[in-house]
Each structure stands twice: as C-alpha cells, then as structure tokens.
Design brief:
Helices cover 34% and strands 12% of the residues. It is an alpha+beta fold and 283 residues long. Helix 1 (73-91) packs across helix 2, helix 2 crosses helix 6 (197-207) and helix 5 (179-188) runs antiparallel to helix 6 (197-207).
Length: 283
C-alpha cells in the first residue's frame, strides 16, 4: 500500500452516471496518441511530495494511461483507501462512502469501463469536457464517458461532483464519519435510482470494515485538519470578453486556485465554459 497520497481540486463540473446496473462496452474512441503503460499496484505515487502550502495537490499527470491490475475487492481497498482518505480530508466525504461507491460502480476495479478508462464512478463527458473519452453503453447505447490517465482524477471528479451541487449540500452537515446518514442521504438526494442503493453501500462498508478509514482520518491518523474550513462551492459561466484574471478579481479567488480547481493548463477560457469556484465562507 502506498504510504501517502495527495490530491488537489483540478476538475471542471462533472455529472455522474449513477446506478448499479451492469454496463457493457461500446465503440471506443480516444484522443490520446501516447503510448500506454502498465501501472502495478502500489507503484509510482507512494513517494509523491506533499506541498502543504497548497490545497491537497495531486501529483502531475503521468502523461500516459496507467493500468491497474486488481484481483479482488480486498486489493481494491488496499490500493485506493489512501485516495479516499485524502478526499475525505479535502472535502469531508467519508472515505468509507467513497470506497463503497467505487467498489459498487467499478465492480471492484474490474469492470470493463473502469479497466479501459480509470473511471471508477461512471462520470460522463457532457459539455465542456476536453480530455480523453471512451464510448460505453449505459442508460443509452454508446454514451461518452471520461477517461483518465490515473484513477486519482476520477476520485477527485467524484468529490467535486458531490461538493459542487446544491442538492447534496445537506450531506456536509453530517459528521464526517457518519457513513450511515451519508448512505441514506445520497439516495434521498437522488444520486441513484436504485431503492436499495443505501443498503448496498452499507453492506460493503460493514463487510469490509471500511469505517476504519474514516476513524483514521477523524482520530488524526493522517494529520487531520483541526479546524477544517467551510467552503461555498459555485460555478461561473464565461461570458463574452471575460478573462480568467477578471473572474478571479470578481470573486476574490486567485488565478492559480481557479486553474488548479478546473485542471486548466493555461489561462485560455471560452464563452459558455463552466468554471468551478470554491471560496472559504466568512466566519
């Protein structure tokens, strides 16, 4: 298991393809021409440096698709528990919930979609997505799903999805380790159409003792933030003539923070583009 994993908010607004039904692959089309590599469990990111002056920065994109070889649900948990814990620190979503959802949505990392895209939560492309993608049969045939070079981007997309939508806002009033309320709250907010979705999450959490990862964060096992900030999460639609600098001045958020949150490599933005913004609430 890697000894440390670090994260930053890097993505644009996301929509998850929720549900627990079996998915089948469709025609595949991706934009990358880079040579694919094979990612072995526990390799690569365990020695990544953590710059505490920034908000949970992710290691740089590896530059090519890294494959995971996951043999069982236990392997999945061992491999991705640190990712879930750092997402818990950054956004307050119980690590147990993130892991259970990942197990359920990705088939413990062995589902066709996940193996081909590193997409663990069924995040669809939708307008504004400029990264790699793959086609997959879901609610309709041949839907477009986001493809990531590394699963850490999928885990961050999942966090931003929950943190940036008003219908999930009440969940963040729960204790960070109250996974039962989170499980039922997700169903109440309309995350999944499956009426048994909460029970499925709870069954996974209790079968594999996933709540222990919540306890490690809350009890300080990962240098838990003592006074976590409360954030207002919202979006801005780029209008004609607007610049990234102008948007940063309007909302009092640095250009670098906006670029990190939206995974922007430069200051170029386009009319109609949705920009995610996250600002600490005034006390």
């Amino acid at each position: 298991m890697m000894s440390r994993f670090v994260v930053i908010a890097l993505f644009a607004s996301v929509l998850l393809g929720c549900g627990t039904k079996k998915r089948t692959t469709g025609t595949r089309k991706v934009t990358s021409t880079k040579k694919a590599g094979v990612y072995k469990p526990n390799d690569g990111l365990k020695d990544a440096k953590f710059n505490k002056s920034e908000l949970y920065p992710l290691p740089e994109d590896p530059g090519y698709f890294k494959k995971y070889v996951i043999a069982s649900t236990s392997d999945y948990i061992a491999e991705f528990s640190k990712m879930a814990q750092y997402e818990m620190r950054a956004f307050g979503i119980p690590a147990s919930i993130t892991l259970a959802q990942g197990i359920l949505e990705s088939g413990s990392g062995k589902g066709d979609l996940t193996r081909k895209t590193n997409n663990h939560f069924g995040i669809k492309c939708h307008s504004g997505w400029q990264g790699e993608y793959d086609f997959h049969d879901d609610d309709a045939k041949g839907e477009c799903f986001r493809k990531y070079n590394h699963p850490m981007f999928s885990f961050r997309d999942h966090s931003i999805f929950l943190a940036s939508r008003s219908r999930y806002r009440f969940l963040f009033n729960y204790r960070r380790d109250d996974y039962k309320k989170w499980a039922y709250g997700l169903r109440q907010a309309g995350y999944a159409t499956d009426k048994k979705y909460p029970q499925k999450l709870l069954a996974l959490i209790e079968r594999y003792n996933l709540e222990k990862f919540d306890a490690e964060v809350v009890d300080g096992g990962l240098e838990t933030l003592r006074q976590p900030k409360k954030y207002e999460v919202f979006t801005h639609t780029v209008a004609k003539g607007e610049t990234l600098y102008g948007i940063s001045r309007k909302y009092g958020i640095s250009v670098n923070d906006i670029k990190r949150l939206n995974r922007l490599k430069n200051n170029t933005i386009s009319i109609g583009q949705i920009i995610n913004l996250r600002k600490a609430k005034a006390k």
